[in-house]
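User: Teach me something about this protein's shape.
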Amino acid sequence: MGEQVSEGKTFGGAVSSARKKLGLSQKELASRVLKEGGSPITPQYLNDIEHDRRSPTGEHTVMALAQALDQEPAYFFLLAGKVHPADVRRAAMADPKLVQEAVLAFRSTLAGDRKR
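Assistant: First, the predicted structure itself:
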């Protein structure tokens, strides 16, 4: 996996940040993200996701975006609101350090939001 993006606090922000780090246009990324039927998503749909006007339609889209952007799928699933407690337990068993870092980052973000 590539370097994890953390600039975006939303799913759309993370997608946009990762895309820009890779130097891809929205059109280029959209052509790499295939729907379950095999056709690519549209640049307009990607634009709506990046601007948080739309959420990904399903888990397949979240996974496809994570893979196309060389990002950790669990992070994208978390931002997309598609993480279940069982997923967190499995992740904690597989890589406790990653989960600890995620929890610390989450707490830090909450603390920063409270100061505003």
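Now, about its shape. Helices lie at 11-21, 26-32, 43-50, 59-68, 73-79, 85-94, 96-115. Residues 96-115 form the longest helix (20 residues). If you'd like, I can walk through any region in more detail.
User: That's plenty for now, thanks!
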